[in-house]
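Data availability (excerpt). The following record was deposited with the supplementary files.
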Amino acid sequence: MKDRKAVARFGSRSAVRLADLALLVRAPAALSVPGDVIAGAAAAGRPLNARTLGVIGSSVCLYWAGMALNDYADATVDSVERPDRPVPSGRVPRRAALAVAGGLTVAGLGLAAVAGGRRSVGAAVPLAGLVWAYDLKLKSTPWGGVAMAGARVVDVLAGAVVPGRGAGSVGGALRRAAVPAGLVGVHTGTLMALSRYEVGGAPVRVPAATLAVSAVTAVATGLSVGRGAAKGALSGAVPSGLVAPRGGAANRHSPAPLKGVAGAARSKKLVAAAGALAYLGTYGTAQVRALRQPSAENVQRAVGAGILGLMPLQAALTARGGAPGLAAALGVVHPLARRLARRISPT
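Predicted structure:
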């Protein structure tokens, strides 16, 4: 009986199953990408509209491109350390992995141009550059972790600079998104530190250090809820009745709106705290396991937990920016991503 599974063709002779392409790009891990853009948009008061969704699509394409390029560049090493991966196993030709990486990069840059014009291209180009530089040159150097952390920082800032009504200046948007971008970058730095020991296991000091940094990141995220709620469609506008006339008493109808704003502030804090706790509960627990027994298997599990654990961190940062509803949605997606990761490893 003929195999009826979907295939993609590269050239005249090769055919690759779509399931193997999904393995190549670690498809479910891309669920960790939209939260970067959303957290940046929330911090800068950007609306969640078609432009923002286009930038999210661009970032997902560039993430998948990086995964495919990683396997292209590591084909020789993977043939020894991870022979079951699509490229060393022969299920995906090496040239096909490079073609996928190139095609997804072009698609990512094109989506950025369509969605946000020069502003979004200005973020997508350095993001793509960092991805390609990491996979082809920097991975085995001390700059590898810096490149990947920088890529995540740029991804958050890409959400902040999406153009639109009431978008304001680029400089102001970047300043407002600097803290969430920095926290995401710090988290990514811990992942990169652990990932160097996925094959041979780690010295105890490595998971001990990354766990400490993750704990500080969680505390900073949960407690540092910004005073100024993001304005615009992501956070909602402050009712005009809240503004008291100059030199006079507050509007007589202000108590109800004030209660609404107080309730929104409480929601921000609660969702941000819940996201930070979920982040530490997933990623932190995996790091504790690696600390107790820093075997290659436990370190690899910690890296996988950290990739998906980024989602509750993003949710907390989104709530911090004034969008607790979107933050809750990101939190709901996290269990789905964890379930999918059981079928396709994010590492």
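Summary of structural features: Residues 226-252 have pLDDT under 50 and may be disordered.
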